[in-house]
User: What shape does this take?
Amino acid sequence: MTLAMEYDEAEDEQPEAAEPVFATAQEWVTEWFLPHFRRNPKAVRWDPQWWRHEEAGTVLEAMWGSWEATRATGDAGAMVAWFRDVFYPLTDRLTAENGPFWSIHEALGRVEVPDTLPHEPAPAGWFG
Assistant: This one.
């Protein structure tokens, strides 16, 4: 067997994909995200039914997927970068006063998800 053949055989071997730690975004939010994000509840906006907010659900699901992928690398530096590039900026945005939970204020009795912003269909052919 030549060196080139050994190299080609090694190239064909694909590393096994790491099994996710959490089965769903909900499980990740409950068991990992919220325990790692402890803030003054009077200083951030949050809805315990976060999944009712399309934007929040989509962002948290993407955060979970990127967390699983980063964790699977086993690279501590990559995880630090994940906190810097994903966790802190997106969590700050999600829980900001004008983030997706802006209308949630239990003390004021505001607990309903707001309607979407008004919109109209684009004219035919507008997008191509």
The mean pLDDT is 86. Residues 51-102 form one domain.
